[in-house]
Structures are given as C-alpha cells and as structure tokens.
Amino acid sequence: MSLAPNVYDAEPIPESARAEIDKLLKSGDLFRYTAPENAPVTLLEQDFAAHMGSRYALAVSSCSAALFLSLKALGLRPGARVLIPAFTFAAVPSAVVHAECQPVLCEVGENYRIDMADFAARLDDDIDAVLVSHMRGHTSDMAAIMALCDARGIPVVEDAAHSLGTVWDGRKIGTIGRVGCFSFQSYKLLNAGEGGIMITDDADLVARAVIMSGAYEHNWAKHMNEADPELEAAFAHWQNKLPLYNLRMGNLSAVIIRPQLDEIARRVRDGRTNHDYVADRLNRSAFLHVPDKLAKEERAPDSIQFNLIGMTEDETRAFAAAAAERGIKVQVFGLSTDNARAFWNWQFIPGDMPDLPRTRAMLMRACDVRLPARLTRAELDYIAGALVMAAQDVMGEARAYGT
C-alpha cells in the first residue's frame, strides 16, 4: 500500500436508519416532545438503558451537557470542589466550571490513568464530588476509586465519552459511579455528529436532570414508558423548582444513533483487535511504548496512544514530522499548539494552576493516533510501519536495534 489510510471518516450510517430518517423528514417532526409517546429520542433512551443494564437514560445535546447536568443534578453547592484527572479534554473541567463548581486536578501517570497515591492525597474533606474521565478509553483503578469515595460518601460521575463497550471487572464502564456520561460525537463509537447520553439508577437524580435538560411544564411524563412511582414522585417534587437549560437531543440524531446500537459489539471487537495488533508492532521498537492495560480492564479503543522513549523535545517534534511525511498524523498532547488536552491550556479554571509534574512529563511524550475499527490489516501495517520508521529516521536504525 503506497497511500496512507484515511483514519478520519466514520463508518457509514446503517442502511436501516434510512427509512426512519425519510419518515422523519417527511413529517418534519424533529422535536422530541411533539409526540405524546415513543418519540425517537425516547426510544433511544429506552434502548440504551437496556443495553447498559441501567434503570434510566437521558439523551442530550452532547456529553459535555450530560456531565454538566450530572453535576447540577447532584445538587452540589456553588463553589463545590470536584476532583478530576489532569489528563482529559477541556470539556470536562469546562462542565465543572459551568456547574459553578471548582475543578481540582490530580496527577495522571505515564499509563494515562489516575495516579492513585495523588488521588487519595487530594481526596480530602473539601472534595464534594469526583468526575472520573476515562480518557481515550483508559480506565483507572475503579475498585480503588470507588472504595475511597464510598468511604467518604463522595458521589462519582463517570465521563465515559471514549469508553462505550469498555468493561471493568465484569461491569460496564458508566454503570459503576452514580451516573455515567457518553458521547455520540463523530469520532466516538456511535456517531451522530454531536450528542450525548447519561445513565443512572437514581430516580431523583434523573428527574432533576430531565427537568433541567428542558422538560418544561409536564413533558417529563414522556420520559416514563411504564409505571414508576419513585420516578413520578421525584418529577412531581421538582416541578417548577429547577432552571431549564434546554440541552435536549432532537429526533433526527436519535434515529441516526439507534441502528448503530446493534454495531457496538462488532466495533468493540474489531477496535480491540486492531489496537492490540498495532501495539504489538510498536512495542518492538526501542523508542515506542504502548502501556499495558490494567488487569481488570477490557478496552474498546478507536485510537492508540504510545509514549516516546529517550527522545528530546526536538527529536519528538522531528518524529511527528517524519510520521506526517508518511501520511500519519501524530498528536503529541503536550507539544501540539494550544492542545485542549494539556491542562496548562485550561486557563479558564479559577485560581492558580497546580504544577502536576508527572502529568506534564507524560503529556510531553504521549502520542495519539486515530485507529478506527473499520481499518484493514494492510492499513494497520501501513500505520505501524510508518510510526516505527519515523522513529528510526530520528533516532537511527542502529540505535533502534542496539547494534
């Protein structure tokens, strides 16, 4: 193969969606609350909750909206301190700020997961909630996190934007904390261009979130597909007591997403196989290292992250340039200009930014490459070969093989 593979296009929307899309376009019925029941968004919520094994789901405009509503639905006081990992996307601390809370950053290790010693040290009496971001699908030690938080009565929100299909110790990521939030942005496992969804077993929490998402008057009744006295009582209690933020999902997004639910298992399987195949190739280089997964983690990757070994900053930049010459874009989190995943660029966070030397050091050598599940073995070989050869270009083949 002489041309670099296209890693940016998403998979086609399933053909089964077309009839529902055409029906919707002919009716013009795009608003989720027009129908008295069984609107496409409502059906998506029911199907997604069933897939995840959760009592409730609420589809909204983005995963950021889901995170924001989760924090608001927890009833956190203004200025509440929310502990988050320092390696995540800027939307996560932004959601905390939008919820009138204060992000508190903790260190992340070279394996892209929460540094549990630093997490435990920062989880003091002033922390009101924890927002665990499974960044790029890398799951932190959820057993340890939940044990620490449960002992203090601290609620946990899971940012599972990159983790649909990931399993931790037999449990689906997003179902371990009080609430889990997922993304339907185009680079995620399910693609609607934009969109998000939150899941929970907490009737009071979801009632608050539904109303704040924009269920004005009594439209919350359209979220109930069966008798649920606990949920109905919660809706009645919060009627007219909460502000409306209007973060609803539209019906067109829902009909695009629903047929893709049947593709989750295949996409997870193929994405994991592709990732592990490329990781094995990269780990044969003296200058590239893909960290191992944690023992209890079964991943659902659609990209690959690896660390550069023994390269200076200039050599790191040269590596990225050499890969780009072969058609493979490498994002070095700490060196890409104004990268939204580099914590020092989150200048909107109130107060002084902590130093966080471990996370900073990781970000300066951590690389990110798209690796969608649809790629063929030949395309994977091209990507892996281009990355290994780019490292050899910079560091020298002799050094790579120790001869």
Please tell me about this protein's structure.
- With 403 residues, the chain is an alpha/beta fold.
- The protein folds into two domains: 16-262, Type I PLP-dependent aspartate aminotransferase-like (Major domain) (Aspartate Aminotransferase, domain 2), CATH 3.40.640; 264-401, Aspartate Aminotransferase, domain 1, CATH 3.90.1150.10.
- It is 38% helix and 14% strand.
- The protein has helices at residues 16-27, 40-52, 63-73, 91-98, 116-122, 142-152, 203-214, 229-238, 251-257, 264-282, 313-325, 357-363, 377-395, 397-401, and strands at 56-60, 81-85, 102-106, 127-133, 156-159, 167-168, 171-172, 179-183, 196-200, 288-289, 297-298, 303-308, 331-332, 366-370.
- It has a seven-stranded mixed beta sheet with strand order 1-9-8-5-4-2-3, with helices on both faces. Strands 10-12-14-13 form a four-stranded antiparallel beta sheet.
- Helix 1 (16-27) runs antiparallel to helix 9.
- The longest helix has 19 residues, at 264-282.
- The protein is globular, with a radius of gyration of 22 Å.
- It starts with 15 loop residues before the first helix and ends with a helix.
- The model has no long low-confidence stretch (mean pLDDT 96).
Task: Kindly summarize this structure in a few lines.
By secondary structure, this protein is of the alpha/beta class. It has 14 helices and 14 strands.
* SS-based class: alpha/beta
**What is the name of the CATH class of the largest domain?**
Alpha Beta
Instruction: Tell the overall outline.
Output: globular
Topology order in helix (H) and strand (E) letters:
HHEHEHEHEHEEEEEHHHHEEEHEHEHH
Percent strand = 5-15%
Strand order of the largest sheet: 1-9-8-5-4-2-3
Number of strands: 14
The Cα radius of gyration reads 22 Å
Most strands sheet: 7 strands, mixed
- CATH topology name of the largest domain, in short, is Aspartate Aminotransferase, domain 2
Query: What number of structural domains do the residues give?
Result: 2
Distance between the termini: 29 Å
CATH architecture of the largest domain: 3-Layer(aba) Sandwich
Average predicted local confidence, pLDDT: 96
Counted by DSSP, the helix tally is 14
The helicity comes to 25-40%
Q: CATH superfamily name of the largest domain?
A: Type I PLP-dependent aspartate aminotransferase-like (Major domain)
Low-confidence stretches: none
